[in-house]
Amino acid sequence: MEAVANLERDAQLMLRVRDGDETSFALLLERHRGPVIHFLCRMVGNQAVSEELAQEVFFRVYKSRESYEPTAKFTTWLFRIATHLALNSIRDGKKEKGQQSLDEELPDGRERQVADGAHTVEESLMQEVRVREVRSAIEALPEKQRAAVLMHKYDGLGYAQISKVLECSDSATKSLLFRAYETLRVRLAHFA
Amino acid sequence: MTCLRENSQGAELLIGYLEGTLPVAERQQVDVHVAECAECRGLLAVRGSLDVPVPEVSANFDAKLYARIAVDEASRPWWKFSWKLVAPVAGLAAVLAVAVFVQQPVVQMDPAVPQDVQQLEQALEDLELLSAPESL
Ligand SMILES: [Zn+2]
Fold it and tell me: With a cut of 0.90, is the ipTM above it?
């Protein structure tokens, strides 16, 4: 199973980081940099802030290397740090006015297009509208629901692992996920 | 027919179905319901409709992180360094402490020489002493 292989590999890498191997840290960074930044970006809705937070996440990982014990999955630990920082950032109102939101960053050409099925101008515009709608629907979710659905949808975490990240029961996590998907279903129904 | 969305048990079934973790009997229960319920079909489909592009990570992300780590490492307190490094430094510090202690009673102020010149001479002597502790 891929998840088990990931667990072993990440934990092994982190144990090597603990023993002073900087190359293993570089490998962990390479593997998780993208997912962590994208998770944070979708959480706080701002790329600059998400990269600042991700700097803090990986800095904390490095700083904690000497006390690291592979008691939990590496990604559980990683996403727990990221989620705490994102929730604090949102609560601190760090997303100040004047900072660009993700939607405003769209035209600067730094976007990596995942779906490029759109060919005509009309299709492109429709696609852009849909992307904006999806983003704002996700951003409008309550923070914990948003964190749960982001990890569930984009990072391949199951509810059991999300429960550990959010430090709540499996039932509570399933309920968070259900409410999030139900809200998204209603909000995005016109695209179905 | 009660919709699965109307109670927590049904909600848990739907999430289990999404993850593909349900036992066969429960999965079939959901299949039967979903065949007749547009809302539940919509709920199961919404996850697949959330694919949107993500911004690329800044090119200098790693460099910034490593710079921060380097600054932090440089400011580590001495007791966090390995003894390989600490031992010779501690040894040298002990030698210097003895040297300063031995030197002190010998120093006397000459009232004829201005105080700032005396201080300068003292500093120069100390410097000489520090640079060659093994000559003691
Ligand atoms: Zn239903």
Answer: no
Q: Does one domain contain both A1 and A37?
A: yes
A187 in Cβ contact with B43 (< 8 Å): no
Q: Residue A186 sits in which domain range?
A: 119-192
Which residues, other chains included, contact A46 with Cβ-Cβ below 8 Å and sequence gap of 6+? Answer: A95, A99, A100, A101, A102
* Cβ atoms of A50 and A44 closer than 8 Å: yes
Domain range for B39: 10-49
Number of domain units in chain B: 1
| Chain A residues closer than 8 Å to B71 by CB | none
Q: Please give the single-letter amino acid code of residue B119.
A: Q
Smallest CA-to-CA distance from B53 within A132, A153, A123, A150 is with A132
Burial class of residue A163, CB neighbours in 10 A (0-12, 13-18, 19+): buried
Residue A58: which CATH number?
1.10.1740.10
Residue of B nearest to A170 (CA): B12
Apex A20 CA angle, A15 and A26, nearest 5: 75
Render pLDDT for B91-136 as a digit per residue (tens, 0 to 9): 545 555 555 555 544 444 444 555 555 555 555 455 444 444 433 3
Residue A109 lies in a domain: no
> Do the Cβ atoms of B107 and B122 come closer than 8 Å?
yes
- Partners of residue A63 in chain B, C-beta under 8 Å: 72
* Centre of ligand 1 from the C-alpha of residue B26, in Å: 14
- B17 assigned to some structural domain: yes
- What is the reported pTM? 0.74
Contacts 24+ apart (CB under 8 A), A21-30: A25/A62, A25/A65, A26/B62, A28/A61, A28/A74, A29/A58, A29/B62, A29/B65
A142-159: b or e for each residue (b if 16 or more CB lie within 10 Å)?
eebbbbbbbbbbbbebbb
